[in-house]
Amino acid sequence: MTQSPKTNKAWLLASRPKGEPVNENFRLVEQPIPEVKDGEMLLRTVYLSLDPYMRGRMDDSKSYAAPAELDKPMVGGTVCQVEASKHPDFKTGDWVLSASGWQSYALSDGKEVSKLGSLAHPSWALGILGMPGFTAYMGLMDIGQPKEGETLVVAAATGPVGATVGQLGKLHGCRVVGVAGGEEKCRYAIEKLGFSACLDHHREDFAEQLAAACPDGIDIYYENVGGKVFDAVFPLLNTAARVPICGLVSSYNSDDSLPEGPDRTPWLLGGLLKRRIRMQGFIIFQDYGDRYPEFLKAMTPLVEQEKIHYREHMIEGLENAPQAFFDMLKGKNFGKTVVKVSD
């Protein structure tokens, strides 16, 4: 994408979606680049991360984080280079991790901006060595507590969180069963990631296939999807099973009203009680922010030694960000969705 040196292209949140997001919820604008003042720096976005949590930020309902503001650049994690600096701690050319959002340039006073070291793949700071990898690591290790010989099931198995969870579980001696959308993703989970099995949730007999793939039940279910996958998993959970919950992407486009159908609360609570299942939701930086160095110390050598494999779904051009976001929410991506905004 060509970028004028004197303008900033940005996707603004134009309106809040009702259900599934659409193009009309965003507006692309071209604005002047602001002047850099003392104590500030101008960041040029190189990579923009697209993540499922962004759908929740588009709503204005009460949540763990403030909603994205209307008529402001849509929120999002970024890897940037310092284009110009009048900040004492940053110099021109520095690579940084920030939250500049869906725009090609951003002015920063240095708050919530961290320098990136020498990285062969700077965009990986948005994935395996960033928030998704951190989410996978802490959810599995702290809540899941994997033990050798246990059965671990993970949904969205080829996404940045699910793929990392499954590979970490394998390294800790678990038998790993993935759930993904489509035969190609399932083959990748088995042949590249080393899962024992991977099931296509689009299959009509998915629940039966899952039961057959887990003859000894399920000890850990890493939940990031919900819906019919959870419905198939729950009856198979063993006594003292652990269920870390980092997301429920299958319901992100629904409204806040209760779903139609019978009240299944007694079925769910009864199962939790009788089988002493531990089901715990977590928000990664709110609950584990102080343990990020611990994660990097553990994960970095695993990635460098290729004991953990990582795949990106790279999209070229900021103008394609909304469609890439829609596709990600529908599971059409294959790996961590990243937008390359500039060279």
Automatic annotation (TrEMBL):
Gene3D superfamilies the UniProt entry points to: Medium-chain alcohol dehydrogenases, catalytic domain, NAD(P)-binding Rossmann-like Domain
InterPro entries assigned: ADH-like_C, ADH_N_2, ER, GroES-like_sf, MDR_fam, NAD(P)-bd_dom_sf
Superkingdom of this protein's organism: Bacteria
Domain Enoyl reductase (ER): 21-339
Keywords: Oxidoreductase
Coiled coil: none
Keyword flag Glycoprotein: no
Protein name, UniProt field: NADP-dependent oxidoreductase
